[in-house]
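Please, structure for the following, as tokens.
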Amino acid sequence: MHALSIPTWTIHISSVIEWIAAIWLIWLYADVSQTPSWRWLSLGMLPALVSAMCACTWHFFDNSPQLEWLVLLQAAMTVVGNMTLCGAAWWIWRTSQRSSV
């Protein structure tokens, strides 16, 4: 756990907590606004959350060479997360275009 300083750990952990809160708030927004397309955005955020948790886990174990596979998983989840977020944003835009016509 010595790989990162306390301020860096604070940023890492608070970012993960903020991401979880954002997922939850977007899900609630979908319920309140009765626009279920927004749920896809909260689901699309999950791979990025997994990516962040991989990074925190790897750093927690002092960047152990035995856990280098976490770095690959983090990179893969970042790519998947970017694609799912793009797809969710497109879906929100698409459904909003249909409802405004």
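Residues 69-100 form the longest helix (32 residues). The mean pLDDT is 95.
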